[in-house]
Amino acid sequence: MGELAEPFEMSLPAVSKHLKVLERAGLITRGREAQFRPARIEPKALMGVDAWIEDYRRLWSERLDRLEDYLREIQAGAAPTGKSGNQGDE
């Protein structure tokens, strides 16, 4: 655990708590080898997380592409498409 805590400003009890949460969630398994408690990542458990992240990655990529197109229109001096919100001139 000391090796895990070293790069972070965390106490050993805090690292232990985090590992217990990950273990309860099924994201890691912990064993016992003499005085060591090695932790191993469970890749199958992370597949659902990866799929969820991929959905959002795709969504934000599409939104950022639309934003980029919009900004190019503005920079080119073209009238932006969409409503401006100014309805007082009607």
Percent of residues in helices comes to 55-70%
**How many distinct helices?**
3
Overall shape: it is elongated
Q: Would you identify the regions where 5 or more consecutive residues have pLDDT less than 50?
A: none
Gyration radius over CA: 24 Å
Structural class: mainly alpha
Tell me the strand order in the biggest sheet: 1-2
Mean residue pLDDT:
84
Distance between the termini: 68 Å
Commentary on this structure:
- It is a single chain.
- The chain has 90 residues and is mainly α.
- It has helices at residues 2-5, 12-24, 43-75; strands at residues 28-30, 39-41.
- The protein starts with a helix and ends in a 15-residue tail after the last helix.
- The chain has two domains: 1-41, no CATH class; 43-78.
- The mean pLDDT is 84.
- The radius of gyration is 24 Å and the shape is elongated.
- It is built from three helices and two strands; from the N terminus they run ααββα.
